[in-house]
Specification:
With 243 residues, the chain is of the alpha+beta class. It has helices at 27-39, 41-44, 52-66, 74-84, 115-118, 123-126, 133-147, 218-230, 233-238; strands at 12-14, 45-47, 88-93, 101-106, 153-162, 185-195, 202-212. It has a seven-stranded antiparallel beta sheet with strand order 1-5-6-7-3-4-2. Helix 1 runs antiparallel to helix 4 and helix 3 crosses helix 4 (74-84).
Length: 243
């Protein structure tokens, strides 16, 4: 996954066979997800009554495709999705009036944020910490979500820097200087978007991969170093980069 400029949305179509895939190599991450869901459910999961129908539709869709049994309640289904897939899931629904809101989610591997603090909020408020989002990105994101057709999957890449290799990273960590530090990590996010046909909910998936800086591809290291020299203070702080 190439490192792109933070203000680049970079959506690309993808086949449904590439949506929320399962791989034997995911076993360690899935074990961690199961542990987090069992021990910290109120930290890694959130669900509004308005999101229950969408969660159940998602559960039926995935269980029908992959052969696991969909539970009878939305909360149990959300936990089952979290245990069965390494991707974190945010369920976005559109009320009768207004933009899409975050109505449910299971976020075991967040990058310095808590789903419980964002549940129920519209996309503009969910992305409030993102520099320039309101001015440059919000209208593009809203347009994309409104125009997305059911059954069509799109993907994009995102990235961040972290001083620790933890997948479960809800709280801030010390920033790093990629020009002088050596022992830090690049968090790659493979993000996916799919609209469900019955409820019209958009399922936003985030598949996180952590790579040590020393093992990061040369072109990606060059991109990060280049961005660190040109991004403004707000973007550097958001990306956990120190000047």
């Amino acid at each position: 996954m190439a490192i792109a400029h933070p203000t680049t949305i970079g959506m690309r179509p993808a086949g449904l066979e590439d949506w929320l895939t399962r791989n034997p190599k995911d076993a360690p991450a899935l074990a961690l997800r199961a542990k987090l869901i069992a021990e910290k459910p109120k930290i890694v999961m959130a669900l509004l009554p308005a999101g229950e129908a969408a969660v159940m539709e998602l559960g039926r869709t995935l269980s029908g495709r992959d052969g696991w049994a969909c539970p009878d309640t939305a909360s149990e289904t959300l936990a089952a999705v979290g245990r069965n897939y390494v991707d974190d899931i945010c369920v976005l629904i559109k009320p009768a009036e207004g933009p899409y809101i975050l109505a449910a989610g299971v976020m075991c591997f967040p990058n310095r944020w808590h789903i419980t603090e964002k549940i129920g909020k519209p996309m503009l408020q969910v992305h409030a910490p993102v520099p320039e989002y309101a001015d440059k990105l919000a209208s593009q994101v809203d347009f994309f979500l409104d125009r997305l057709r059911p059954g069509r999957c799109f993907k994009r890449g995102n990235w961040g820097i972290a001083s620790v290799p933890d997948l479960h990273l809800p709280d801030p960590v010390p920033p790093v200087n990629p020009g002088t530090d050596a022992n830090f990590y690049v968090r790659h996010e493979g993000q996916s978007f799919l609209k469900l046909p019955e409820t019209g909910a958009v399922i936003f998936g985030i598949r996180t991969k952590i790579t040590a800086w020393a093992d990061t591809a040369a072109e990606d290291r060059e991109a990060v170093l280049g961005f660190a020299k040109t991004l403004g203070p707000e973007w550097l702080k958001y990306k956990s980069i120190s000047a």
